[in-house]
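thread: overnight batch results

M.L. [08:02]
morning all. the overnight job finished for the chain we discussed friday. pasting input first so we're all looking at the same thing
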Amino acid sequence: MAIKNQCVNCESYTSTDFCAITGVNLIYDGSHCPKCVKRSVNVNVNTRSSSTVVAGSNSSASASSGKQRHGCITAWFVVALIINLLGAIMYLFAKEIVTKGLPKFSNTMVVLFGIICAANVIFIVMLFQWKKIGFWGLAGTNIAAVMIYMCADSGVVYSLSGLAGIAVLYGILQIKKNNVRMWDHLE
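M.L. [08:03]
and the structure it wrote out:
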């Protein structure tokens, strides 16, 4: 009697790794279902009988059980981090240049955008740390930016671009790695 893993979530069976040389089944402690990546439990199944060895935490199955984000998500976070960092510096320390390029913006609005960019940097770092509050913080700063654009009478399309940013961010967080969306990993 060998042991297979039964997924707690979808109840499908995943096979154990069988070593053809030693005739030993390797059962990974804390393995996960490849279909839904939820925790599996070991159950006895009538198959070829052989001895069983439990592999430690250095196995590839338990290494993949940790949180992982897709490369596209990481790239987006890095780009957003750089843009917001540069934006914060520009809005807070080069106000004269910004107000020349955006004459409808008062000094107060420019400072507010600098604060929003600085807050965005903090929220992006929170997303890097798997904190869902980072998403909600970015959503809040985008809504605040929309309100500032509307106060500056920047036009409807320009004003509503911040709301599109929230939708794009939410869509990016839906990208899967190992059949799990990053959104599902956020705490």
